[in-house]
Amino acid sequence: MNSGLSLDLYELTMAQVYFKYRPHTIATFDLFIRSPRRPFYVACGIEEVLDFLEGFRFKEKEIEYLESLRLFDDDFLEYLKKFKFQGTVFSVEEPEIVFATEPILRVTANLIEAQIIESFILNRINLATTLATKAARIVFSAQGRKVFDFSLRRTQGIEASLACAKYSYMVGVEGTSNLLAGYFYKIPVVGTMAHSYVMSFPREIESFLKFSYQFPTKSILLVDTYDVKRGIASAVKVAKFLKRKGVELVGIRLDSGNFKEIVHFARQFFDREGLIDVIIFASGDLDEYKIKDLIKENVPVDAFGVGTNMGCSSDLPFTDVIYKLVEIKERKSQFIPTMKLSERKSTYPGRKQVFRVLDKAGKMKEDFIGLEDEKLGERLLHKVMEKGKRVISEKSLEKKRELFFQKIRALPEPLKDITTSFVYSVKISSKLEKLAVSLSEKIKERIKEKIVFFDIDTQADFLSKRGALYVPGAEEIIKNIKKLTGLAKRKKILIISTQDTHRQDDSEFKEFPPHCIKGSKGHKKIKESLLKDFQVLSFRKIYPRERLEAFIEKYPQIILEKNTLSIFSNPNISILLESIFPDRVYVYGVVTDYCVKEAVKGLLKENFDVVIVEDAVKEISPQEKERLFGMWKKKGVKFSLTEKVIKELEEL
């Protein structure tokens, strides 16, 4: 169970990305049931999760297997060799009555640790909660009559059969036919006989007698192999025979036929013969609905053996448990709440708590889902693990069974009716609701189309009539450059600017007059193209990705120096663009037929969507401009005007 491979592949592919780019990120995940397919659920499987987390390791052979997939880097595999879960876990107390949307379990850990345990804990809690909930419904429907687990032969594997026996016993089933479960969990084991046993003897009554000789105090006779009424008559004879020897027949089992009719017949027959203590045991395709129907009709069944429908939870074979990120933090920063906004799959953010309110009679009145620091009732989530170690001792199965009986005394009576329309009140606290509304607005801002402005060489030497390499008419676009800069400031659009930067002896001066020499007035960007805060990146220095990403977060404008026509000669631009990954790039500046041309060429090569702001660029050759515009249109470049750009982006 503690295999490091007890997970889906994508847990590890994501983990490798986290290892490379977010190694120190701390995250909190909530595990909860998404949809209310049941009126209530019994949360189980938590102890198995804690066992797994304490012992979760990647064995040598498992690392070798991962290596053979040729997906993972050596340094990440080395990390996995030493992997150990060291997080904190809060959970409800198993077995707890819970409702859809309420956190059952909360994990706070390094993002890698919290992520790769997802599949296992979902698997465990899904199976245990599904089976415990189904069994509890069956026990409730029996209204005090005993229920036994007969599911071994129909569950999806031996492990599932053990889970059914364990969790059904925890919620009130009296025993199991599963010997392995009896051995492991000390659950009472029960059994009768099979039809094949009866058929193996020449006479039905002989099979009954032989069985009774061997197990005089444990005999429950299967009476419907041939003719059920004759089988009952034979059972009566055997019962009277045993009684003369001072032994009471325990009962009979009915596995088929019209229960409503035949059970009444059997009960009357036994009572008439003075065998009032012989019980009638019913089995065969039973579930909570059929049991409820039998009891509603006052059918005198004393106990039920339930197999397939309980062991496979046939009407709802899964619980829609999900595990979602609710907060995240980088090293030395505060936790930031996060949430999913997908339609019909949205989640609530932050570190939450479930609060339960009881009425004066001790019955459950309502639950609240609120933030951890609120005080709205009895807290259901408690710390069960810290730094990867349990902080609570495991309770025995018998103790958990007693605990469940205590908890169901507080359960509203309508919820014990398996066809109830009663909906228990689970409210979201106003504080959590406000956080969710506020955060959803911020997230919507975050996921808006990512726009970047590309401001090309808006420097005095090109735009001023006194500039060393003045572009005729370029001063006319300054007012539009100012408007675009103002728009970027208002809408928090990142401006990536280029700044032609030369030394006195640059080779470019063989083709062009000296211009934009660093430190000169002509080298400076015009004030209309500058924001208050900016970061300059030299083409002579390569910055690490982490530093560039920090610049993106901190500065509204990044200026990249270059000493050639192309901005892509600055070694930082490709990583910068890759980190931003804009949806659209608006290009403006000078000169259309030189540096703007090279910028557009590089952006198209990187497959970015480009928009040219026509009235914010200036060319030297009108003919070359027309040629370039025509070529760019064929390549998918779009064109716009400053006022149109402002109108469109103001609405974003």
Question: Could you characterize what this model shows?
Answer:
This protein is an alpha/beta fold and 652 residues long. Among the domains are: 9-131 and 317-442, nicotinate phosphoribosyltransferase (Alpha-Beta Barrel), CATH 3.20.140.10; 449-650, Isochorismatase-like (Rossmann fold, 3-Layer(aba) Sandwich). The protein is built from 23 helices and 26 strands. The strands form five sheets. Strands 13-12-1-5-3-17-18 form a seven-stranded antiparallel β-sheet. Strands 22-23-21-20-24-25-26 form a seven-stranded parallel β-sheet, sandwiched between helices. A six-stranded parallel β-sheet has the order 7-6-11-10-9-8. Helix 6 runs parallel beside helix 13 and helix 7 crosses helix 8 (179-185). It is elongated and about 125 Å long.
